[in-house]
């Protein structure tokens, strides 16, 4: 049975890298007594894949993992037992069965929403003005560097939602594939519009949710609620 797990990544575990998170879930499944399906070959491993790994230092209220477990297990019980052994920072929010022939979770991601909190030492008026300037811009180029190439990218078409209030920025961005702009890139742009040198410690970032096409949360995309 293929399942999709939604979980949080908060507090100190925000500093764990992708491989550490993978190892954590391998141990979590074992400690919770979840009967997993393993790959075949000389080095069998639990079948699992993650949606869109986060950068270090970013919290999340909506991370996703797809994996395969043995049939006949109650998913509510799986959720309960995993939460009992997960520890601080990780919390299982829901476990859903995937439909037959569902797309891989990484390939399903089309959008991501974030919350950015600005330090109280920054002027709220300046932040609001920079957000308004970005929202009214028809084009804004940033230099984007990947493993394969470097190019200037217009971020305006990638921004689906952008709102600001009380030192907090809420934004929804296109994600997945080539259309993938980081929340930190937007923060960097706002600092530039304020005329202030960017300092990562002046903001905190939390990913709120990952969405498939039509802004459907991944927990509801190609899943079955039992």
List the main descriptive attributes of the protein structure presented here.
226 residues; alpha+beta; nine-stranded mixed beta sheet; two-stranded antiparallel sheet
How would you characterize this protein structure?
- Helix 4 crosses helix 5.
- The chain has helices at residues 18-31, 75-85, 105-108, 124-136, 183-194; strands at residues 2-9, 48-50, 59-68, 90-98, 111-118, 141-145, 150-154, 159-165, 168-174, 203-211, 223-224.
- Strands 1, 2, 3, 4, 5, 8, 9, 10 and 11 form a 9-stranded mixed beta sheet that branches. It has a two-stranded antiparallel sheet with strand order 6-7.
- The protein folds into 2 domains: 2-107, 2-Layer Sandwich (Alpha-Beta Plaits), CATH 3.30.70; 109-213, Alpha-Beta Plaits, CATH 3.30.70.
- It has 5 helices and 11 strands; from the N terminus they run βαββαβαβαββββαββ.
- The radius of gyration is 19 Å and the shape is elongated.
- The protein is an alpha+beta fold and 226 residues long.
- A hairpin with a 2-residue loop joins strand 8 (159-165) and strand 9 (168-174).
- It starts with a strand and ends with a strand.
Helix/strand-derived category reads: alpha+beta
Tell me which CATH architecture of the largest domain applies here.
Answer: 2-Layer Sandwich
Q: What is the CATH first-level class name of the largest domain?
A: Alpha Beta
Major β-sheet profile: 9 strands, mixed
Helical content, roughly? 10-25%
Which regions have little confidence, pLDDT < 50, spanning 5+ residues?
none
Strand content: 25-35%
Mean pLDDT reading: 94
Q: What's the N-to-C terminus distance?
A: 13 Å
Structure annotation, total helices: 5
* Count of β-strands: 11
SSE order in H/E notation?
EHEEHEHEHEEEEHEE
Number of individual domains = 2
Radius of gyration: 19 Å
- In CATH, the homologous superfamily of the largest domain goes by the name Pseudouridine synthase I, catalytic domain, N-terminal subdomain
CATH topology of the largest domain, what is it called? Alpha-Beta Plaits
Which outline best applies? elongated
């Amino acid at each position: 049975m293929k399942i999709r797990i939604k979980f949080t990544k908060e507090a100190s575990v925000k500093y764990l890298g992708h491989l550490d998170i993978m190892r954590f879930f391998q141990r979590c499944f074992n400690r919770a007594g979840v009967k997993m399906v393993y790959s075949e070959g000389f080095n069998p491993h639990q079948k699992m894949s993650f949606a869109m790994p986060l950068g270090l230092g970013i919290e999340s209220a909506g991370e996703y993992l797809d994996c395969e477990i043995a049939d006949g297990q109650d998913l509510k019980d799986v959720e309960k037992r995993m939460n009992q052994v997960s520890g601080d920072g990780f919390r299982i929010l829901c476990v859903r069965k995937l439909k037959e022939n569902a797309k891989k979770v990484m390939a399903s991601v089309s959008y991501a929403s974030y919350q950015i909190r600005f330090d109280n030492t920054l002027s709220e008026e300046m932040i609001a003005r920079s957000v308004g300037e970005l929202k009214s811009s028809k084009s804004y180029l940033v230099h984007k560097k990947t493993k394969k190439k470097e190019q200037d990218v217009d971020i305006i078409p990638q921004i689906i939602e952008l709102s600001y209030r009380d030192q907090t920025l809420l934004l929804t961005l296109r994600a997945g594939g080539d259309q993938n702009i980081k929340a930190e890139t937007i923060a960097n742009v706002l600092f530039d519009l304020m005329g202030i040198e960017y300092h990562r410690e002046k903001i905190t970032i939390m990913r709120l949710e990952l969405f498939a096409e039509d802004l459907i949360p991944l927990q509801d995309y190609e899943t079955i609620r039992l």
